[in-house]
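Figure S4 source data
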Amino acid sequence: MQPTLFDQIRARFFYSNLATGITVVSAFLLAVAAYYFMDWGIWSAVFRADHDACYEARGACWGFVAEKWRLILFGRYPYEDQWRPALATFAIVAMLIVSACPKLWTRTGARIVFWGWAAALLSFFGLMYGGFLGLEFVATDSWGGFPLTVILTLLGIGVSTPIGIVLALGRRSSLPIVKLLSTGYIELVRGVPLITVLFVASFIFPLLLPSGVRIDPFWRVAGGIILFQAAYMAETVRGGLQTIRQGQYLAADSLGLSAFQKYVYVILPQALVAIIPSFVNNLLSMFMDTSLVTVVSMFDLTGSLQLALGDAAWRDFFREGYIFVAAIYFFCSLLMSRYSQWLEARLQSGTRRSAALRH
């Protein structure tokens, strides 16, 4: 007989006197906090963009968000052209959703996903830059808000992952020079904070370039993030490689596979499944760390909020702005975390079924 919902709740929260007491006290405190937050955030709040009404109200002023949401989401991008970053971000998010669909995890689906990503990235940078088909050119200095956060996260994780895999394999290599270079790079980069890397990429690196050579600040910052994240990704992948038993290597050697085939078809697929939780942790960390680009005069989501708070009429309502931005970060992080848990369970169940069939 399958346990009822009441039985499950009792087994989880009321299985002892101590657990019952903690549950009751916690529920009471949460109820009180929820009441005060609802009173402040909804019942006594002001939702229209009227700062005079906000000063008179005793609740939250969501009018600040209603007035400044476009500046927060799109930064200094020209107001009349903000449909372009909105459409560009939609293309990236749509491809993320498509790529997460298991039905496309086939050889044919991989081709669809590859060309879909090529089209999405081309659309993103085409719309953001403009300069063709009557679209006004917009320099990267004016990019900001959520689109900047999304593309920096995507480039940081997407490009650093293959670099990290190569570095992890290099660190485990039997060739002394390859191992030394890989280990040296990983330890050097991991010993430096990201903010230092961003300063070097923004202010020091241009001084080292030949006269007349200039690299766009956006690409310098993106390159710094990629190289920084690659070192952490290398250690994550190395941890996954250490979970693979020696028998897997011997089995691949007995089949006459080359070193490349052994890692591509046998070792790395298993190692990458093992590091899904760590990979998602790196992804979430990268998603949050994009806020550091504010220190080098690039305005991501949190940086755009600072621009919005520059209006003296709304400056006192910074709490509502930070809650709005925090909600965006939380929602995106929750989706990524839940998907990673589902993916890990799916892959592990597939591995167990394969093992059962072999036995």
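Figure S5 source data
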Amino acid sequence: MDVAKLLDELEVVIEEGWSIPLAKRTLVEHGTCVYLIDLLRTALPEDLAEAQLIKQNEDKILTDARAQAEEIVQLARRQADLILGESQLMEMAKLRSRAIVQQGEQQVAKIVQRAQNYADEVYLKLERDLNFLLAEVKDMVAREKHALAEAERDFQARDWRRGTRLPVGRRNDVPR
């Protein structure tokens, strides 16, 4: 039987004993107390032997417990290093991706600026070419007007010499 239970039963027997008035003494059942004490004596050697065995193996048990604790600590450190390494890799990957995106945005901005500059240059060249062509066309129209005016004066001068003068703009009405 368990020593703790036997001690509990002995305590109950003592508590249930008869108190002697005006004295700090209690009467208990002798037979029950002796019986419980005998059971305690038989149970104690087992518990004492077990306690001595634990005491003898205390160093081994502590050494084993410390070794297990150290293994657990080492495993935890390896896992923490692994997690930290993964975390650092993730952080490095995020930084690298940000740098790549930023570099891409800068390249896009440069390309857009170059395209804008090229479009501006093409527009200015086209505007210059059109202004030049417009000037040439105006000059050509002016020369043609001048040539036409001279031709008309020459024509009128020839008609004048012949004695007939045709009004300008009514030549088609002249009988032949």
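The first helix runs from residue 3 to 15. The chain has a mean pLDDT of 82.
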